[in-house]
Amino acid sequence: MGYSKSSLLIVVNGIRSREQAFFDRNACPAATSQQELLQSNPHMPSQTDDQLSEELKAKATELGFDIIRITPAISPPGYHPLLEWMANGYAADMEWIQRRKDAYQHPDGVLPETRSVIVVALNYHNSAPPKSDVRISRYAWGSEDYHSVLRRNLKKLATTIHQTRPQAKSRVVVDTAPLLERDFARLAGIGWFGKNTMLISRDIGSWFFIGAILTSETLSYDEPFQGDFCGSCTKCLDACPTDAFPEPHVLDANRCISYLTIERRDKPIPDDLRKGIGDWIFGCDICQEVCPWNRFAPSESLPEFRLRDELKQLDLLELLSFDEASFQLRFGGTPLERTGRDVIVRNAAIVAANVGKTETLPLLQTLTQDGSPLVSEAATWAIQQLSDI
Ligand code: B12
Ligand code: SF4
Ligand code: SF4
């Protein structure tokens, strides 16, 4: 999932620490000099690292995060595998990853002088909607885009740091910054890299988002995750309909349905991969659905990720009829808005052919004249496929 908006830099100034409030009330000379000392030395902890780390963990639980762990800011072991991944062309057209490849070397590339990385996991698992014409990946079933949900709650969490260490610099990271989030989640001890490349937790499986706060502060650190609990299982590798895994733990984005249906927005989907897309119009969950570690995944943690009524039944006839206005009416403000109308209609045309829905032929015929070449090309292809039935 790639996003172009930059993550938010938050340096919370003006929030008075408990110490400051105490000193203000008691206004004695010693107190003033201590206060000055605190302000002149940003790294002098006003609370011990242990206390602040414990407070952060308690606050994270209160905010609904499922897991929070903390790791020192180091150069991630996944940096060289990342370079190899790009050199093999597996990043497809996600030039925003390649453009910032140097910045991935250390969290300093995102926030200078980062000392600690606070990593959270937020579960979004949800029970499946009734069968409809098309499928949408689970992460997009909620009422709000997960980036905004995570950012909002991470910003609240970051205030815990700034209340006691007013000079701290922190930055909230969800997806967009050049940070290998899965690497830091493993370093913090959240889980291991499954053969499907997902970070998997023994406690909650893999249906979770990762978010992070980079901070200039030192904290108490958790142990990295040791071991790999995939064993001899290969269910995810065998189930991928487009053969997107050239080897275990490596994903070729060019072949992944998630990339094809969400990120590939200005080019047609290659012909040889269209059948494999099956009935997915937005993302794909197959390599997680088959994973035994997800059998007992808990239900979603926040109401924002509860299945929206509008997604319970999705009809190809409606999707293929979308113009900009009706697309916005249906998907505005939801995670699907991000791709725009043309991509969803293009995907819907491919799905119509894949599921053999001949009732869509009149609509597809109209779409061959669509203003978007993405849509008209896919509609022409779909008509050919349906005519062969
Ligand atoms: C680009 C991207 C994609 C791309 C590429 C995915 C990929 N596997 O690389 C596409 C568009 C295909 C995609 C799809 C999805 N994504 Co995405 N994506 C990202 C993003 C923005 C960057 C990932 C990246 O840098 N990839 C490059 C590869 C090389 O790195 P990596 O897979 O993250 O980490 C690997 C290396 O570090 C390597 N490694 C580390 N050390 C070592 C050592 C050795 C020896 C070796 C060999 C390897 C190795 O192993 C890690 C795991 O494979 C991250 C957010 C972020 N900033 O990290 C989200 C992220 C990875 N995506 C996420 C999700 C939820 C998804 C989807 C499930 C969405 C969907 N349902 O459609 C799918 C899952 C597909 C899959 N099986 O991965 C979550 C994953 C959460 C989790 N529990 O793991 C993330 C973290 C977003 C988030 N903030 O929650 N995604
Ligand atoms: S998300 Fe789907 S297409 Fe992508 S690797 Fe997993 S199973 Fe394959
Ligand atoms: S399906 Fe099997 S091999 Fe794949 S990630 Fe899950 S446990 Fe590992």
Give structural attributes.
single chain; 389 residues; alpha+beta; Leucine-rich Repeat Variant; two-stranded parallel ribbon; 9 strands; binds cobalamin; binds iron/sulfur cluster
Task: Compose a concise summary of this entry.
This protein is α+β, with helices and mostly antiparallel strands. It has 16 helices and 9 strands.
Structure notes:
- The protein has helices at residues 18-26, 29-40, 49-62, 79-87, 95-99, 146-164, 181-188, 235-239, 257-263, 271-274, 286-289, 316-321, 324-331, 341-354, 361-367, 373-387; strands at residues 9-10, 67-72, 116-123, 135-136, 170-173, 192-193, 199-200, 208-215, 280-282.
- It has 389 residues and is of the alpha+beta class.
- Among the domains are: 9-27 and 46-215; 315-389, Leucine-rich Repeat Variant (Alpha Horseshoe).
- The strands form 3 sheets. A 5-stranded antiparallel beta sheet has the order 1-5-8-3-2, with helices on both faces.
- Strand 6 and strand 7 form a beta hairpin.
- It starts with 8 loop residues before the first strand and ends with a helix.
- Residues 1-42 have low confidence and may be disordered.
- One iron/sulfur cluster is lined by residues 196, 240, 242, 244, 251, 256-258, 284, 286-287.
- One iron/sulfur cluster (SF4) binds next to helix 9 and helix 11.
Number of separate strands: 9
Order of helices and strands: EHHHEHHEEHEHEEEHHHEHHHHHH
Q: Count every helix, treating DSSP H or I runs of 4 or more residues as helices.
A: 16
Arithmetic mean of pLDDT: 88
**Strand order, largest beta sheet:** 1-5-8-3-2
The global form is: elongated
Q: Indicate the structural class.
A: alpha+beta
Distance between the termini: 35 Å
Query: How would you classify the quaternary structure?
Result: single chain
The percent range for helix content is 25-40%
Strand fraction: 5-15%
Bound molecules: cobalamin, iron/sulfur cluster
Q: Largest sheet at a glance?
A: 5 strands, antiparallel
Supply Rg: 24 Å
- The low-confidence parts are 1-42
